Amino acid sequence: MKKLHKLIIISYLRPFVATFFIVSFILLMLFLFKYIDELVGKGLEWYTILQLLGYNFAVNVPLALPLAILLASIMTFGNLGEQYELVAIKASGISLSRAMIPLVVVMVFLSIAAFYFSNIVMPHSFLKMASLLYDVRQKKAAFNIPEGVFYNDLEGYSIRVNHKDKDGKTLHELMIYDHTKGNGNMSVIMANKGEMFKSDDGRYLVLNLFDGVRYEESPGDNGYNERQRQTRIRFKEFGLKFDMSGFNLSRTKEELFKDNYQMLNVRQLMAKEDSLQNLMALKQRNLSLYVKPTFLIYRPQANFAKLKADTNLKWKNKDIIMNLPKSDRLLTVDDAINSMRNVKSYLTSAKDEDKAQVEILRKHMVEFHRKFTLSFACMVLFFIGAPMGAIVRKGGLGLPVVVSILFFLVFHVLSISGEKFAKQGALAPYQGMWMATIVLVPIGAFLTYKAATDSALFDVEKYQRFFKNLFSKKKEV
């Protein structure tokens, strides 16, 4: 490897790695802000949160990688231009295109890695994240009975405690409503003191009550007697056992999520698309077989070419009705009307079902093209960032950040809009998913050409002279 190639690659990798992790960290913070209410107060273990963040880090790569490539490209060639190293490279007879070759090779490997990541790693990470996030959201908040208010997270019971000791296990002046029978507030327990502890396996919470009374109302013995019977039981010690399984993080089987289109690779997406298309074709054939026998097709003996338009043709159907016995005419008409209503209902249901199937098919096709667009986006954004850095000749985190964010916003908005249009059916899936790439490829080619020919694209004086000459010619005319 030449020293020049080594210099350029090292100069590129440093800002690339730093930018990639900075952007990934920002996206992780956005994820935390979005689901902070689902995570706080549930007593999650640190490794569970770390797993969730790790899976989300992998899912965010399609956003972080293109921005890191774009910003690192602008910063690298901007620094080379600002420090006149790019001028020295060109003075030694090496063109900008040749200087970009080592980074082009790096981009090829990055693009291949991006495709592998999109096809293999990201579906697996998305499956793990979706499954874990679902379980976290289903988990109840950490067990903690507050003072002075009713606590309702124990299934079937509502508990109020006036005072707790510092050990958190000894309770005073308890009131417990028993809702396990589903008959409202018909049973209440009041105790002066209580002690709670968990069972050895941690599945149950045992609450021992001392010096209390249990009140329970129940219907009378006779069904016609509206008066109720009240039972009062005094006790010195009474025990309750609560199921704590809802407070533990129970894992759902990942097989329930694996058929989602976002969790499939290219081969699985192709197989799923084929099965969906075959299913839709089968339903269309069944629809035709169901509807066709319902209609009576009238074929006149005369040649169709000799038939003339007859506005009263619909009244000829009266001949069919009139040939029937009088007793069967009304019944035949009612049967025909009911048959048409059934056909209409069946067609409406089939239309809605077909619409849902088409939407699912579009989502699978969109996800199929997404596997490839990330790789091409890496190459396209590099050929935008590298020449842009050589043109602006500014390094650091000032102008390069502004320019890269502007181009990335254009790329991201086009990608999101194209995906939305593709899922809605306004564009074909390949058109929507490749729209951003198609728009940015000419921009990258134009910037690369301008940078290779040393064109002063952002020379303000050049544009001022152009407009001055233009207005002076208009005045002469």
UniProtKB/TrEMBL annotation:
Subcellular location per the Swiss-Prot or TrEMBL entry: Cell membrane
Bilayer disposition of the protein: Multi-pass membrane protein
Presence of keyword Transmembrane: yes
Transmembrane domains' residue ranges: 12-36, 57-80, 100-122, 372-391, 397-416, 428-449
Record GO cellular component, one term: ATP-binding cassette (ABC) transporter complex
Keyword Cell membrane: yes
Main location: membrane
Name the record gives this protein: Putative permease
Organism, as annotated: Solitalea canadensis (strain ATCC 29591 / DSM 3403 / JCM 21819 / LMG 8368 / NBRC 15130 / NCIMB 12057 / USAM 9D) (Flexibacter canadensis)
